Amino acid sequence: MEEISLPGGVELVLDENRRTARVRLDRPDVRNAQTMATWSALARAADLIRARDAISVVVLSGAGPDFSAGLDLRMLRGDAPAGEGDVRELLGRDDAGVRGAIADFQRGFTCWRELPAIVVAVITGRAVGAGFQLALAADLRILSEDAVLVMAEARLGLVPDLGGTRRLMEIVGYAHALEICATAGPVDARRAERLGLANAVVPNEDLDAAVERQLDALRAVDPVVSRAVKTLMVGATASTPAEQLAAERAAQVPLLRKITGTSG
Asked: Which family does it belong to (predicted)?
């Protein structure tokens, strides 16, 4: 087992024996609020996981009672800790430069769908703004009963810009996604489950056991198969029916050869 501390309060644990990586936001004193350094570290964590072929499942979580309070607002005020990022300083660039920086920040969120491993977000307490978008970036979400999701950017005069709009619409549909983003209203755990945002909602005291059951179920499948399934599912949203059928055929042939011991 290898433990790695990254900037921005990101802790990574690689357990190749159990085929599992754990990525934890570890800034409980500020409810795991995220900074520019956090976003860079999330992308770095994904790169480190991708380099380990043995890893087939990843867990995203937050230290303390909350998953993440979202954007560390000190970055907007100019008093964020040194090295964490300053929005006012960023805005000294021209518009193209600012858009380029945001593209870099988005990498800390899009990287989880791009991983071959299946990513499970474990959400306790509040997942606000960037926290909600990080939860959306996972493949599966397990929520505690006290979990609340809030796309709060509109309250700040902003829009979600870390990949959350597309993912939210894919999961809940246009009308619900528009309402959640435009009103910045809370989505409690039970509504999240009804909308398909939660794969499971469990009592807080049962959360760890429920997560381990889900991980055991995922790890029970040949990692080659689970990676192929994730690749097919991620690609399905952008594929035509014919393209998806072709992708299924292409994925199936080497698996058939593997289980039958035949070659072409």
From this structure: Belongs to the enoyl-CoA hydratase/isomerase family.
